[in-house]
Task: structure prediction
Amino acid sequence: MANFGNFCTLLALCLSLYAIVAALTGAFRQQERVVRSAERAAYAAAGCASLAFFSLLYLLLADDFSIAHVASSSSLSLPVIYKITAVWGGHDGSMLLWAFFAAVMSAIALWQIRGKNRDMMPYVLAVLMVNLSFFLALSIFLSNPFQELVRVFPDGSTQPFIPADGQGLNPLLQYWAMVIHPPILYLGYIGFMVPFAFAVGALATRQRGEVWIRATRRWTLWTWLFLGAGLIIGGKWAYVVLGWGGYWGWDPVENAALMPWLTATAFLHSVIVQERRGMLKIWNMVLIAVTYLLCIFGTFLTRSGIVNSVHAFDDSNIGKFFVYYIIIVLGVTLILIMDRREYLRGERRLESMTSRESAFLFNNLILVVACFAVFWGTMFPVFSEWIRGVKISVGPVFFNKINIPVGLLLLLFTGIGPLFAWRKTPSASIKKMFLRPVVAAFIVSAGLLTGGMSDFYALICFALCAFVITAIIEEFYRGARARGRSAGESFPLALWRLTWKNRRRYGGNITHFGVALLFIGFAGNAFNEEATGYMRTGDEMRVGGYTLKMAGLIESQTADYRFGELHIEAYKNGRLIKTLKPERRIYDGQSTTVVGLYSTPKEDLYTVYTGMTEDMRCEVKARVNPLVFWVWAGSALMFLGTLIAIGSKGS
Amino acid sequence: MTAKTKFIIGGAIILAALAWLGFVGFQESKAYYITVDEFSEMKDGLDGKTLKLAGDVVAGSIDRSTPQMEFVIASPKTSIRVRYTGSGIIPDTFKDGSKALVEGKLEADGIFNARHIEAKCASKYEAEYDDRTVS
Result:
């Protein structure tokens, strides 16, 4: 089966390489027949890549420990669901998953345009297949998941080796969010190859109009949705499994996924300006290319360990291929854009600062600056080592210093952008549109100030959220009332039809509502409280208005791990609210945490059992994290809004 | 003034403000990221600077009997004693033999005062087998 998997991967590589050559030859010689053959090769490559993926899955399910990947990320006793997830439990398997997704998604994208956009087809095809070939080649030559496990003797000779059982999947990954997180994140990384391929196709054929943007609108939104969902699910996992108390730590692996999300968000907005006003054509090309390359770069960051470890760059040979690939793709794209700049000339100019265009421009500027700051902070250790020979890293302080104000500015433009009209907003309209949101912002900040809140950023954040939410509710209300009057519909019916008939616009509004809720959750971070207690049964500790009483400790074991489960009674104002059960699991050689959590819209009570001291007291870290609920609720609303917007057929 | 000029001025103000914040944040949180061996070689140049030291946790050196946990991390040649004074949770991956990254400063008593610990466990098979294929 391993040989079969290898064979399929190799065949898929040959097919995709053939497809590149055939597509370009067909385009230059204008032989439609050859292009058709390239298309079929791409479908066949998708079939072969799928077979390769399923061979690896089969090897894992069959517990074939002669394969290094299986031996290092699975074991006999692992539940079936985790054997499946063990496909991407290691470096090499995740590369194959990447290639498998890329192959299948390329095939779907090509199938969708088979009847139209024939002139762009060869170039779109070629770009998609270059992307696929790169990952297939990595999968075969540098990080092959089908390699056999061997024993190496001191004299250098080797011999196949089959252990009786595998090492098992890292217990930290044995959690529901980690089952779906990597595939969802990968869909979010990979999907941007489609709009990028269309952008290159449009450039190569000097396509008139915005065909490439319209053709890929849904791809872009779906991909953006997946990338965002991947980020949030990753955050949820960190919050519940890692037990350090937060959901975001500016870790390079997190930043890797955030960067393309930021530029993709900029792209989502700036293409609207191109569609409506024929501006920003070069900028959009650059943004989608950068987004695609940041996705590749993110995979590279996550997989090469270049930032996480001291001087890792020398011994990771896979890293330099990523760097070459990124440089080549970037170079080719920039040359194409430079060469076609006349055709990309904007049709109109910016007319006024109080226009929708200008709000979008600021939104783009801020998102790109945020991305650059994250990039700089993440890569600084690498740059400083190149330039000065010593690795200097920056901590969360750096990221927060820049990104908190950046986030607030972004929130501000989320509020005012939709209130502006295209071209120029008449000043009468400005007064009318801004009145209630501004009043709401003032009421909220005055209320919070009298309530004794002194954190500057949090205060601004809540005020801006009030502004955004009021503006959105007003827009829904105005639209539904006008529709209700003219169509003679009841208000709820008018509200429903209004949203359904203008899914793109109102889906966007719902997403923005989610953004405001998300920021309410972020602002809660300013008020976190933390305490550590060392308790025996009957002892108490206090944290943020709660009294925690240790009611008991249960120690036992399952087939896979030993565990200690604490029972902690949480009291507020003398009343028992919930018995929390933080747990500590000790696997062979590694321990994991199960957080004891009591979550309400107001705040989370978060407890972690971190171990026992020498005098047999249980060490408990307890936190009160206000408003975390809104992070999950806000992102759920963002996804809902995006789904509604995807449903529309465009403007 | 055209709208484009206004946009450029507005953008420049935002960029300048963020660049300043970035600079301040950078000064506050920068840390030299080196191995224990490199540290012992360039000790004098690093007085009072925040460091991120990388090394392996020496087996049996973790001492949790004191209120502040102490342990020893080592590179091939040298080792250093570390005292953990942070309030965060010590990661589950931190144990004998794991690769640790400690962030903090060297104190006058020669013990490294760590406010933050990251750890990565060494792979179980690594010492015994190599997973290269027979070629």
About this structure: The first helix of chain B runs from residue 3 to 29.
